[in-house]
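4.2 Preliminary Data

To establish feasibility before requesting continued support, the project team ran the inverse folding procedure on a target of 226 residues. The structure was first converted into the token representation described in Section 3, and no sequence information of any kind was made available to the design step. The complete token record follows.
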């Protein structure tokens, strides 16, 4: 009986370890795997084709002008500039990426999640109110929030809804690193009210406990990626 309990404990521990191990990008078994645009004579690894290592060049690991702010056109007042495997082929299989976030005065990076990555953010300029919400629990969804100043750092755990808001009258800038080469992003309002095709308004009116006219109004708005 005692041995059976030990085996059961070991089995459960291994199962939990396996589930954690596959929660993020798999470990790399090579130095790099530059994403190849042309699959001819390439190897398919982790969702992308890999360039022959003998053909790799320094530019495969390089992205220029990440210090240059872009033009903020979003109605929420922010612009996210990614540096992931789509921009830097050499990131393929390395399990890391980053973004630059520019905020107009009172600009918002709206509530969103990264399904495949934890995020760590540092404020370069300005003052941001940031926060994340825990998953469902008996005590409800708890909000962790903090006011960040230049040089401050904050962590958003993988998969949890989070946001950043520029509380100042001047522009703000932040850089964030993410624990995936392709972390993904789900902007909550866009996904719920701007999906193609639209979610049935009966479903959304019950889910949000509002009149269907409110849902119809929100679905009629122009939703754009940040």
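Position-by-position output of the design step:
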């Amino acid at each position: 009986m005692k041995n059976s309990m030990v085996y059961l404990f070991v089995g459960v521990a291994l199962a939990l370890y396996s589930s954690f191990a596959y929660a993020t990008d798999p470990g790399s078994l090579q130095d790099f795997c530059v994403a190849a645009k042309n699959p001819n004579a390439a190897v398919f690894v982790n969702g992308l084709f890999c360039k022959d290592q003998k053909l790799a060049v320094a530019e495969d690991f390089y992205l220029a002008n990440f210090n240059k702010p872009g033009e903020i056109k979003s109605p929420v007042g922010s612009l996210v500039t990614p540096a992931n495997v789509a921009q830097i082929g050499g990131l393929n299989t390395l399990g890391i990426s980053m973004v630059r976030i520019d905020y107009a005065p009172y600009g918002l990076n709206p509530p969103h999640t990264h399904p495949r990555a934890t995020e760590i953010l540092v404020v370069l300029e300005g003052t941001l109110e940031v926060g994340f919400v825990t998953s469902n629990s008996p005590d409800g969804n708890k909000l962790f929030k903090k006011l960040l100043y230049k040089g401050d750092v904050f962590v958003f755990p993988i998969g949890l809804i989070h946001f950043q808001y520029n509380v100042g009258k001047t522009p703000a800038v932040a850089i964030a690193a993410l624990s995936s080469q392709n972390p993904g992003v789900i902007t909550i309002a866009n996904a719920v009210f701007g999906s193609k095709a639209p979610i049935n308004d009966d479903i959304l009116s019950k889910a949000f406990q509002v009149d269907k006219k409110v849902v119809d109004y929100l679905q009629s708005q122009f939703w754009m990626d940040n």
